[in-house]
């Protein structure tokens, strides 16, 4: 009984923390279609400025993959008013830091400065949107940068080809079937005019959201935003093409060899719904039950009890159109992938047919409460959340209400969703092996 009260007390504490974290924001749209979200927080003298463009690997031509990731790099080359090679120097000289990243659905740029440098951050991002220099020197330079990144992260890295193999087996029609880094052959073959056309189509104000989060004066920020972004011309409307995959009804078996590994890996991958759907959130909870730390079911069974695996886990790759749920394990010396598959099947079958315990359910709730608080604990985290909720989910209010969705998920729902999506005939089984 004492343990019950302790757990309940921790739940109340975490609940209070979440309630106290309610995030106030305001939003408006400029005449050119740029959506703006402002979130003022004067608790620390820093401010994050971010721009998320609704363009990712899925928007590429199948014969020209890698463009969105390429532009993540290219748009740091310089602008008409920021000389080539000076972007990072300006950041550092003014106490700032920033970066960018790309995935299948969007490209994201951000800077965090001391709060007295908001005007500089807004000017820099407006320069990136309106006045980038896209020339042959920059294209040639960034081609080599991307090639080196691919060599380091994929070609010469242990398990570096993993995600690429999963994607091409899970998807046959959707552009999710290729990795965001794309094909080096496609980038080599692309002309300067093709790169310019890609920029003109996607990197426009009406295909983006600008977020300012942190310590700033709202009235002044609005004036600067209007001055720097308001004159950028609206682009043509971006029409997203829809791709529908046929359901997986028979287990897909695949093998891949990797010269960079000595230990094989077993993977089970399932194609699941868009991250916007409730079922995808339920599957996130299922992932935590299976692999949320060393007390999770897969780890305890495969690593601790049966001593079949060095490591075991699962995770969700949440995306706008479809997501992927992946279970993996690395065998101990002398153990086989089929032995591990039997145990994985047994543990997944339990989730499909039995309710998780009340104790596991409470642990889940605490984990998701804590993750929610951590996600929005900094201006960078808040800026990213606001941008993504607007651009990909279509609902900025989720920054305060999504946790309620997780709170409302029941043990029965966890069982039923597992049974709906985690059937053996709906998966890819991939043996990822050392190259012979």
Give your account of this protein's structure.
With 436 residues, the protein is of the alpha+beta class. It folds into two domains: 31-229, 2-Layer Sandwich (Cytochrome Bc1 Complex, Chain A, domain 1), CATH 3.30.830.10; 252-434, 2-Layer Sandwich (Cytochrome Bc1 Complex, Chain A, domain 1). Helix content is 46%, strand content 19%. It has a six-stranded mixed beta sheet, sandwiched between helices. Helix 1 (2-20) packs parallel to helix 13 (358-375) and helix 10 (278-291) crosses helix 16 (411-421).
- Per DSSP E runs of 2 or more residues, the count of β-strands stands at 11
Strand content: 15-25%
Helicity level: 40-55%
Question: Which residue ranges are poorly predicted, with pLDDT under 50 across at least 5 consecutive positions?
Answer: 1-20
What is the oligomer described by this structure? single chain
Whole-number radius of gyration? Answer: 23 Å
Under the CATH scheme, the architecture of the largest domain is: 2-Layer Sandwich
- Give the helix/strand class: alpha+beta
Query: Strands of the largest sheet, in order across it?
Result: 1-2-6-3-5-4
Classified by CATH, the class of the largest domain is Alpha Beta
* Major β-sheet profile: 6 strands, mixed
Mean pLDDT: 93
The SSE string, one letter per element, is HEEEHHEEHHHHHEHEEHHEEHHHHHE
General form: globular
CATH superfamily of the largest domain: Metalloenzyme, LuxS/M16 peptidase-like
The rounded distance between the terminal residues' Cα atoms is 57 Å
Number of domains: 2
CATH topology descriptor of the largest domain? Cytochrome Bc1 Complex, Chain A, domain 1
Count of DSSP H/I helices: 16
Family: Belongs to the peptidase M16 family.
GO molecular function, one term: metallopeptidase activity
Pfam family, one: Peptidase_M16
Domain Peptidase M16 C-terminal: 190-367
């Amino acid at each position: 009984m004492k343990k019950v009260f302790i757990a309940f007390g921790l739940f109340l504490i975490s609940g209070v923390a979440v309630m106290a974290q309610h995030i106030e924001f305001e939003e408006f749209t400029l005449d050119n279609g740029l959506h703006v979200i402002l979130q003022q927080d004067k608790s620390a003298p820093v401010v994050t400025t971010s721009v998320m463009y609704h363009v990712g690997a899925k928007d590429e031509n199948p014969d020209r993959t890698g463009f969105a990731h390429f532009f993540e790099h290219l748009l740091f080359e310089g602008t008409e008013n920021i000389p080539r090679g000076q972007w990072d120097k300006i950041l550092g000289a003014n106490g700032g830091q920033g970066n960018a990243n790309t995935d299948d659905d969007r490209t994201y740029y951000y800077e965090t400065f001391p709060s007295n440098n908001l005007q500089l951050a807004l000017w820099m991002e407006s320069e990136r949107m309106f006045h980038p220099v896209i020339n042959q020197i920059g294209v040639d330079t960034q081609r080599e940068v991307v090639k080196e990144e691919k060599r380091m992260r994929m070609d010469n890295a242990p398990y570096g080809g993993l995600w690429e193999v999963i994607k091409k087996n899970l998807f046959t029609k959707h552009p999710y079937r290729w990795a965001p880094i794309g094909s080096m052959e496609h980038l080599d073959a692309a002309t300067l005019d093709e790169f310019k056309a890609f920029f003109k189509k996607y990197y426009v104000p009406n295909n983006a959201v600008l977020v300012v989060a942190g310590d700033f004066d709202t009235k002044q920020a609005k004036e600067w935003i209007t001055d720097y972004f308001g004159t950028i011309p609206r682009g043509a409307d971006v029409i997203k093409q829809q791709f529908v995959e046929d359901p997986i009804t028979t287990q897909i078996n695949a093998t891949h060899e990797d010269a960079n590994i000595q230990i094989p890996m077993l993977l089970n991958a399932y194609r699941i719904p868009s991250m916007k759907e409730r079922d995808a959130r339920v599957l996130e909870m299922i992932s935590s039950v299976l692999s949320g730390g060393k007390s999770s079911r897969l780890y305890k069974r495969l690593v601790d009890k049966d001593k079949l695996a060095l490591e075991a886990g699962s995770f969700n790759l949440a995306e706008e159109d479809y997501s992927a749920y992946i279970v993996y394990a690395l065998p101990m010396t002398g153990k086989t992938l089929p032995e591990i598959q039997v145990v994985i099947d047994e543990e997944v079958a339990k989730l499909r047919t039995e309710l998780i315990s009340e104790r596991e359910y409470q642990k889940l709730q605490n984990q998701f409460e804590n993750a929610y608080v951590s996600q929005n604990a900094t201006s960078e985290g808040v800026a990213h959340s606001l941008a993504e909720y607007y651009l990909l989910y279509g609902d900025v209010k989720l920054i305060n209400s999504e946790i309620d969705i997780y709170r409302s998920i029941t043990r029965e729902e966890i069982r039923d969703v597992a049974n709906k999506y985690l059937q053996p005939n709906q998966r890819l089984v991939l043996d990822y092996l050392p190259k012979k």
